[in-house]
Design brief:
six-stranded mixed sheet; five-stranded antiparallel sheet; 8 helices; elongated; Glycosyl_Hydrolase_73; MGlyc_endo_b_GlcNAc-like_dom; Beta-N-acetylglucosaminidase; hydrolase
Length: 475
């Protein structure tokens, strides 16, 4: 960085960039990437000519919190005959925060020469690992701070009275469950190298995972019964005293056949969907299952485990009859454009896609029903996209593909699934099933960990109405 007439400035210690901030001026960054520095970091800046002390003030040299835009209190000093500035924090920088050291062209040399460019250095303060006391009602009180997880782990009590906190998350407890923070990548190793799958919920709330252990870089969990790892900053370990509610499966007593539902706990409420017929021998009531397959020690096979390369036993007329009947139970008045059931008559398209691409037509119909809310979603109505194709989590509507008609959407979905998710040579292939987050399409098709089970619920209701002919495909 230079004054005009080649007056030079150099940082004694360099730092790194995290994130960007929109500023009124244009800024030159000392480094391309930020660096982590201690919470009491003193910046030392050396010039090749003495600084005019009257221009050394917090208007021209200051530290700003990148997230809040507030100036951090600092003391500025001139040393070594005015050629060195030190920037000392009056109070420690906050752990986990990002800051910017600014030096502006208002700073001048004794010869009244200004810097030729505003310059900044962006730096971060690493989070501390805190050992916190856990009260009976779940409140936390920090007892001590440590620079590493291992150091905190050596000191934390094992009796359930203390936990380890990192940033805003509790990352270790003697026991409990794990909640993810929104969209979360699940890795296949504790060093968080290769991604295995990802999870999110429709409402962007937390996903409930089985807690196994905590490691220096990750939290070991089980998702649908299979081991994976998530980062310390993306999940929260809830000890028993902090668990307000937990997802459960419930068997409902029905006259002809007991029904299995799933009550998913999210953001303080339960969201319930039908999964399928109840496991044989299970009485009405609530049951815990981490994989949606094993109940009271016995495995239960439902439509998310159906090989969807098998053809349905139903005709296009059958599917049309179900769509027409079930549409009468949908409250289309809540959707602005649906004067008639939007999916009516699409049975032929589902069967045609099955014939051409080998994807079960009952599955395709159920997928369309689920992804488009029976054809009434904005993506379906505006873009004729019944399957949420390319409707990524960061911008579902904007990124969603557009088709000329619902029929075109159905045919493309058959092609898309056949050549991607059902192709053993494709990276997305995890088996020919709707599945869950450990097998089948659900691993990479959708972030909702219960997507495959919800599709199974739609298939169950259709199959139940049409005579239970496809249930035998599971045998």
């Amino acid at each position: 960085m230079k004054f005009k007439h080649t007056i030079l400035i150099a940082l004694i210690v360099s730092v790194a960039l995290i994130g960007t901030t929109v500023l009124a001026q244009e800024w030159a960054n000392w480094t391309e990437e930020p660096i982590e520095v201690p919470e009491e970091k003193v910046w030392t800046v050396t010039f090749d000519q003495p600084i005019n002390p009257e221009t050394l003030n917090s208007d021209y040299v200051y530290v700003e919190n990148e997230n809040t835009g507030e100036k951090h209190p600092t003391s500025l000093d001139l040393r070594e005959e005015g050629r060195v500035i030190t920037v000392t924090p009056d109070e420690k920088y906050d752990a986990g925060e990002t800051y910017q050291l600014h030096i502006t062209d208002g700073l001048k040399s004794e010869k009244d020469v200004a810097l030729n460019q505003n310059t900044r250095q962006i730096f971060t303060i690493p989070d501390k690992y805190e050992v916190a006391q856990l009260s009976d009602n779940g409140d936390l009180t920090v007892q001590a701070e440590y620079d590493t997880y291992d150091a905190a782990r050596e000191q934390v009590a094992e009796d359930g009275s203390e936990v380890i906190v990192f940033g805003n998350n509790t990352i270790w407890a003697p026991d409990g469950i794990v909640h993810t923070d929104g969209f979360t990548i699940v890795y296949d190793g504790k060093e968080l190298g290769s991604s295995k799958t990802y999870v999110n919920t429709v409402e962007n709330g937390e996903v409930e995972l089985e807690y196994i252990a905590t490691h220096p870089q990750s939290i070991e969990i089980k998702l649908a019964g299979e081991t994976g790892y998530v980062g310390h900053d993306s999940a929260n370990v809830l000890p028993p005293s902090q668990i307000e509610g937990q997802s459960v499966y419930e068997v409902l007593d029905r006259p002809d056949e007991n029904v299995l539902t799933h009550k998913v706990y999210e953001d303080g409420i339960y969201r319930v969907y039908t999964y399928g017929w109840a496991p044989e021998g299970l009485e009405p009531g609530e049951y815990q299952s981490w994989d949606g397959i094993t109940f009271d020690g016995q495995e239960h096979k439902l439509f998310n485990q159906l090989d969807i390369t098998k053809e349905t036993n139903y005709t296009a007329e059958d599917l049309n009859n179900y769509i027409k009947e079930e549409s009468g139970h949908q409250n289309y008045e809540t959707f602005r454009r649906a004067e008639t059931p939007p999916l009516e008559g699409l049975g032929d398209a589902f069967i045609k896609a099955q014939e051409e691409y080998g994807v079960n037509a009952l599955f395709l119909m159920s997928l369309a029903v689920h992804e488009s809310a029976w054809g009434t979603s904005n993506i379906a109505q505006d873009k004729n996209n019944l399957f949420g194709l390319n409707a990524s989590d960061n911008d579902p509507y904007g990124n969603a593909d557009e088709f000329e008609s619902f029929e075109e959407s159905v045919m493309y979905a058959g092609y898309f699934i056949k050549n991607g998710y059902l192709n053993p040579d494709d990276y997305r292939y995890e088996g020919p099933f709707a599945g869950n987050k450990t097998f089948g399409l659900n691993v990479r098709y959708a972030s909702d960990p219960y997507w495959g089970q919800k599709i199974a619920g739609h298939m169950y209701r259709a199959d139940k109405y049409l005579g239970e002919k496809d249930r035998q495909l599971l045998e």
